[in-house]
């Protein structure tokens, strides 16, 4: 029984007895040890390459860490994949058919996971081309917030209420991205209305002095303060001033209040819309009532241009 087992052909005309020789066992042991050493070397080299690439991104403040983390992982897994192929060749396994089988399996998996893979592909594009990065304040896919993390599958935002928002990368890459943090300065804009009876030179001086007295206001480019519109009940000043992007929102709110208080202190009228309503009484006299609302108009059911209190023919 044992003799029959030892004489059993295993592979390439070799029997089990032939494989149990010292020479064969030493050769197999050498191949296994060589494969293990190659695998360990691949792991060490891959980890070293990934760390070096990540350190390059951390060493320079202008470089995006997200991009270099991705490149580090890509380098590591590429080295490991080549190492595995070399190991398989070392132990005598033909890798040509194996690679073909892996390719066929990858195709089948790709068809089954089209949505997920589209997010991964979009994540790679976002990381490589960097339209947004961690810390940017953006509006994308109808959501506004600060970018907290960009992974291969999704982008994480924190909105103005510090609520987490997860957006699939395919929606990020396939939509318009508004990045409020990309440039160091922004232009703030207001419209301030004064009454028709106000001194426009005084109003312009008060607006200019109030806004430019704030240390956050930039003098270069020069501010724009001009009469822009003759409204129904006001003369409108269009004001545009440059400011650091980090100060933009608070600066806009502060200037609205400061300009209002300064105009009040100078006695410059800030009008509000008014409506005059003419109503006909039973004896034919016209009574007038004034209320807040739209600009003055006649509302007695008559056509425009008729005298108040008259009735339609």
Please describe the topology of this protein.
Elements: H1 2-6, E1 9-11, E2 14-15, H2 16-19, H3 22-59, H4 65-90, H5 95-112, H6 114-129, E3 137-140, E4 143-150, E5 154-158, E6 164-168, H7 169-173, E7 177-179, E8 185-194, H8 200-212, E9 224-230, E10 235-244, H9 248-265, E11 274-280, E12 286-292
Antiparallel strand pairs: 1-2, 3-4, 3-7, 4-5, 5-6, 8-10, 9-10, 11-12
Describe the structure.
This protein is α+β, with helices and mostly antiparallel strands. The protein folds into three domains: 2-112, Helix Hairpins (Orthogonal Bundle); 132-179, SH3 type barrels; 185-265, 2-Layer Sandwich (Alpha-Beta Plaits). Helices cover 46% and strands 23% of the residues. It has helices at 2-6, 16-19, 22-59, 65-90, 95-112, 114-129, 169-173, 200-212, 248-265, and strands at residues 9-11, 14-15, 137-140, 143-150, 154-158, 164-168, 177-179, 185-194, 224-230, 235-244, 274-280, 286-292. Strand 3 and strand 4 (143-150) form a beta hairpin. Helix 8 packs across helix 9. It is elongated. 14% of the residues are buried. Mean pLDDT is 79; it is low at 288-313.
Instruction: Please provide the ordered H/E string of secondary-structure elements.
Output: HEEHHHHHEEEEHEEHEEHEE
Largest sheet: 5 strands, antiparallel
Number of helices: 9
What is the average of the pLDDT values?
Answer: 79
The value of Rg in angstroms is 38 Å
Shape summary:
elongated
CATH architecture of the largest domain: Orthogonal Bundle
Strand order of the largest sheet: 6-5-4-3-7
Number of strands: 12
In total, how many domains does the architecture comprise? 3
